[in-house]
Each structure stands twice: as C-alpha cells, then as structure tokens.
Amino acid sequence: MENETAALTGGAGDEPALTRIRALPSWQLNRASARGRRLVSEALAREGVRMSHHAVLSAVSDLGPVAQAELGRTTGFDPKDMVGILNDLQAAGLVTRAPDPLDRRKNAISLTDEGGRRLARLAELGDEANEELLGALTPGERERFLELLRKVAEG
Amino acid sequence: MENETAALTGGAGDEPALTRIRALPSWQLNRASARGRRLVSEALAREGVRMSHHAVLSAVSDLGPVAQAELGRTTGFDPKDMVGILNDLQAAGLVTRAPDPLDRRKNAISLTDEGGRRLARLAELGDEANEELLGALTPGERERFLELLRKVAEG
DNA sequence: AGATGTCGTTGGTGGTCCCAACGGTATCTG
DNA sequence: CAGATACCGTTGGGACCACCAACGACATCT
User: Fold this and answer.
1) Which residue in A24, A141, A155 is closest to B136 by CB distance?
2) HTH marR-type domain spans which residues (chains A, B) (predicted)?
3) pLDDT at A7 over 80
C-alpha cells in the first residue's frame, strides 16, 4: 500500500511534479502540436513559404479577388501580420494587390497563375507532412483521433 | 456523381483550399494546443507565473539542489531563457540561487518553502484548466485521446 | 455636412524557440 | 605541472507567432 496522505502536494500523492506536469493533456498537446508545426513548416520551407503564407494563399484561392480585412477575418490573422504576409506573397509573384475601384479603401487581392501552381504543391507537401505526423496511427485510430481532437479544439 | 478529375488541385478534387487546410491534423492540433495553452496560462497567471515558471519550479522540486544546466537539460529550456525564468522565480522568493562550493561554475537552485506552497497551488490550477480543456470528452474518450495523443507527440 | 466606422498601414509588446560568443572554472592529458 | 578541452552561467541576437493601439484615407449613415 502506498502512502496517500501527502498533504503538501495537494492530493497528487508522491508523484514527482515533473512527471505530473508532463502527463497533462495540455503538455502532450503542446508536444504534438510542436511536432506537427515542425514537420509542416519544414515541408513548406522547401517551397520557400511559411504556414501563414499557405493559409492566406488558400483563402485567396477560395475567395477570389478579396479585401485584406476580409482575408484577416477569414483566416484569423491580425491585420498587422496580414500586411507582411501579403507583402511576401506579392513579392514572390503569387498574388496581386490592386486598388478596388468600387471602394478605394480596399486592396483587391487575387491569385496569380504561379500562385495557383504553388498552392497545389503546398497542399501536397502539407498532406505529406501530416501523413508523417500521424504515421504511428492506424487508419482507424486516425479517424478516432481527429474526431476527439476536434471536440477538444472547439471546446 | 461529383467531378473527380480536377487535375490542377492535385487529387483533392473540388474541395476549397481553406476547408482542406483546416481539416489537417496539424491545423486541429494547433487549435487544440492553443486553446490548452490559453486555458492553462490564464489559470497560472492568477498566481503570477507562466507555464515555463511552473515547469522549472516542478523540476527544482523534484531534483532538489540542482545546477541550471541540469535543469535546462531536464526541462528542455534554452540556457538563455533559463536565466530569465530563474531570475523571476528568485525575485518572487520561490527558489534560491547559491554558488555550489563543490563546483564554482554551478549555481545550486533550491526550492524555498514558499516555492513549495506555490507549486502545490499551481498544480491544482493546471489540473483545473486541463479538466476544462477536456470538458467535452467522456472519461473513456479522455483516456483514448491521451493514448493516441502520446503516440502522435512521440512520433 | 457631420458623425461613425472600416480600410490598410505602422509601431510596439510579450512569449517561445534557437544559435553564437564570452569570461570563469573544472577536468583530462601529456 | 602546463596546456588542451569541455562545461558553467550569462549576454546578445534572431525568427516566428499572437495581440493591441493609433493613424490617415476613405465610405457610409443620418
């Protein structure tokens, strides 16, 4: 029988504090998320972009000519950061920034042909990285994992 | 029957690019992890510390008097960041930094009584935050989720 | 015409992670 | 013992991410 009356440790018993912390879902989530980000960002870096570029490029592809603010609302990026991301994408020739004649406050962001081609490659690279991320899971486990993960993410 | 011959989109069919990205495990992992970090860090902030403080405090509690470099290796923090974290903990009176007489290169980091009490409260707050993080899952689902999560995190 | 609000942009903060270099100290080796 | 080697804590810096405040330009509502 173990000693279970360690009052000072708040009911956690004799478990080492570090062991306890590392067992927390939040800790494991951070580890898994960091691994995913590493895998994905390394893959995308082979095409010279970051994850934010991929996300914004995807949004532009979906929404056709679209204002920056609308992109920001859709993707969740701060307007400040959106400026930099679009600067990069524009400099790389993947999107165009044109003044909107109907509302001169807005920039109409559009995908270039090269942007479309790049996006297709990015999507493939992203899929491959995610394939590796879930490599230890069987197809059934992946489905179950994603289902539970979504519940946790949405709260 | 849907059109499945959209060559340009690399086999993804007619699915919008954003929908595709958001369905990726890496994307959902990031969302869930961000939510967990937000919940935990908000909870720990009520005791005036960040997650790194909690982790290091736990390591000090486990390892008794211990050198900074050893703490860094155990917790994975960069030596540079460890300096700042210990500065904070020391300023708050939670740990002591004493020169190690046996090896004058080292600082012997020890937990103070107040550090021990604070750590117990932090552990409780962390547990509560994690309880909320997994609130949408049944006990059985939580167990299964953690099991799969560990596999993904470890790669 | 004036109030109100949105547009893109600039500037700044804080957290996380990583790398390079330094003076001080210990240890290993000839 | 002397010199090479390695580790200690510290400083400085950079990249990325998330977030907030303020601004001039412009559109819209009343």
Assistant:
1) A155
2) 15-154
3) no
Mean pLDDT of chain B, nearest integer: 90
The per-residue pLDDT for B140 is 96
Confidence of residue A15 (pLDDT cuts 50, 70, 90): confident
In chain A, where the domains are located: 19-127
| Contact between residue B16 and residue A60 where contact means Cβ atoms under 8 Å apart | no
In A43-82, the residues whose Cβ lies within 8 Å of chain B are: 54-55, 57-59, 61-62, 74-75
B42 touches strand C (CB under 7 A): no
How many CB atoms sit inside 10 A of residue A137's CB?
17
Determine if residue B109 is left, alpha or beta; phi over 0 gives left, psi from -120 to 50 gives alpha, anything else beta.
Answer: beta
CATH topology (fold) of A19-127: Arc Repressor Mutant, subunit A (1.10.10)
- Specify the pLDDT at position B15: 79
The rounded distance, in Å, linking the Cα atoms of A26 and B55 is 13
**pLDDT (tens digit per residue) in A34-70:** 999 999 999 999 999 999 999 999 999 999 799 999 9
CB-based contact A29 B17, cutoff 8 Å: no
Task: Kindly identify which residue of chain A lies nearest to residue B138, measuring between CA atoms.
Answer: A148
The answer regarding whether domain B23-131 maps to CATH 3.50.50.60 reads no
Question: Which of A58, A116, A154 lies at the smallest CB-CB distance from B21?
Answer: A58
Judged by CB atoms closer than 8 Å, whether chains meet at A155 and B116 is answered as: no
